[in-house]
Design the sequence.
């Protein structure tokens, strides 16, 4: 029988935010892949694990060898359909049966923490990339959300957007450690967020 690659979204991080279906797949896995924090939270002693780093070639080889023996579960933060390892896994293992279990994205968690609806919001990412200019130009009533990183943090993004014509008084929020006990949210304006330190791995909501 051909073994299956299972991609399980674990949500924004807090254990209360993972779907039962994903948790069941993780608990049943013999071969489990994930970030260091996810493995610390969910892996058990009887599982063979691989911690995801920036080096993907060794990860692909490990998964290939594991799939020859059993199913492999890959934990991804947030939802697998939103800037995760899913496209890379599909490219690396195009012939392998694939099951994807959804998770709550960090952007959803951010809007809920802000008690705001997100319909109509444009979901983009500054995590390891810069969106095209035409996706960042100001228009009245527009609402954007971003994943951020160490280089493109909310302060950088605020300055970048103001350079694209966004008024400094535009409402903006920076949200980090979503769903964890140390969740931290700053809600202000673009001009004030531009002065904000930190929030490297976070979600930013604008508009």
Sequence:
């Amino acid at each position: 029988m051909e073994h299956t690659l299972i991609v399980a979204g674990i949500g924004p991080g807090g254990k209360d935010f993972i779907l039962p279906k994903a948790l069941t797949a993780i608990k049943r896995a013999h071969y489990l892949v994930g970030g260091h924090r996810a493995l610390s939270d969910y892996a058990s002693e009887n599982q063979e694990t691989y911690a995801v780093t920036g080096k993907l070639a060794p990860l692909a080889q490990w998964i290939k060898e594991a799939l020859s023996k059993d199913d492999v579960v890959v934990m991804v933060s947030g939802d697998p359909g939103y800037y995760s390892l899913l496209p890379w896994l599909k490219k690396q293992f195009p012939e392998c049966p694939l099951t994807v279990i959804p998770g709550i994205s960090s952007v959803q968690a951010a809007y809920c923490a802000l008690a705001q609806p997100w319909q109509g919001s444009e979901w983009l990412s500054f995590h390891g990339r810069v969106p095209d200019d035409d996706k960042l130009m100001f228009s009245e009533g527009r609402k954007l959300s971003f994943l951020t990183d160490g280089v493109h943090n909310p302060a950088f993004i605020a300055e970048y957007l103001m350079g694209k014509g966004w008024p400094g008084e535009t409402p903006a929020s920076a949200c980090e450690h979503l769903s964890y006990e140390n969740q931290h949210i700053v809600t202000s304006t673009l001009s004030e967020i531009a002065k904000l330190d930190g929030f490297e791995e976070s979600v930013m909501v604008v508009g």
About this structure: Helices lie at 20-28, 36-42, 56-67, 86-92, 106-113, 154-163, 190-193. The chain has a mean pLDDT of 96. The longest strand covers residues 171-176. The chain has two domains: 5-101, 106-206.
